[in-house]
Amino acid sequence: MTFNIRRLLSRVRRAVDDYRMIEEGDRIAVGVSGGKDSLALLIALAELRRFYPKSFEVVAITVDMGFEGGDFSSLEEFYKTLGVPFKIVKTNLAEIIFDIRKEPNPCSLCARMRRGILHDTAREFSCNKLALGHHYDDVLETFMMNLCNEGRLGTFSPVTYLDRKDITVIRPFVLTKESEIIGFANHHTLPIIKSLCPEDKVTDREYYKGLLADLEARREGLRHRMFTAIVKADLSGYGVEDKPKPKKKKNTEERKTQSENGDE
């Protein structure tokens, strides 16, 4: 299935409008890992800024984990073609997590450390918002992980204000399915950077991704009904009917939902 930029933008525009993600004068940092989701999100926001009624700016931030053989030169060229300011932050996170600390659960620590770097770098760019590439399927997978692993109902929020960093995290892809992003990526030449992480595709999230795919195959429309239930219950701020303008709030939920991470 091909998926052109207009269809991608329609999903993003609806999410941005429904959840009031963008305001006049916003400067938005996009966390770009080099995967399809974050690259597609950067393209969508770079295009949206051209015609959205509220003027905003976009910058790109990439965290180089320090894996041997990592090469981000293609991303630098890509950012320039989009006319987007960028910074690639070089780190030794891979060595710290896998060689020094030998973490038994590396994903949780890695996500926290990468988030901290993204938040700090976004503030260096004078950004008041950080956009992440979590999509519709990520919403459902995180819901399942929280339900089955922690015994609670919830997922990551479409908009979250982090009071300690004074930055708002937005997720413009929450209404965009992964299959749609894959279709867009297949139809366009994106400088996708293959993940060098040894935990790639073997995480708990992958298990729930497979579980949901199996359930969907047995009960067609299951994902849609799950998402509809989340919206109707207004879980994690997904209700949109007569929704008031969001106020700044403490990031209690963000701290609790550590399983939300990974923008692939």
Strand order of the largest sheet: 3-2-1-4-6-5
CATH-defined superfamily: HUPs
Structural class: alpha/beta
- SSE topology string: HEHEHEHHEHEEHHHH
Helix percent band: 40-55%
Global outline: globular
Q: Roughly how many Å apart are the termini?
A: 19 Å
Number of domains: 1
Number of helices: 10
Identify the CATH class.
Answer: Alpha Beta
* Overall average pLDDT: 89
**Content of β-strand:** 5-15%
CATH topology value:
Rossmann fold
Rg from Cα: 18 Å
The low-confidence parts are: 252-264
CATH architect. name? 3-Layer(aba) Sandwich
β-strand number: 6
What can you tell me about this protein's structure?
- By secondary structure, the protein is α/β, with parallel strands linked by helices.
- It has a single domain, classed as Rossmann fold (3-Layer(aba) Sandwich), CATH 3.40.50.
- The chain is built from ten helices and six strands, in the order αβαβαβααβαββαααα.
- The chain has helices at residues 5-18, 36-48, 73-82, 93-100, 106-124, 136-150, 178-187, 204-218, 222-232, 252-256; strands spanning 26-31, 56-64, 86-90, 129-131, 159-162, 167-170.
- Helix 2 links the parallel strand 1 (26-31) and strand 2 (56-64).
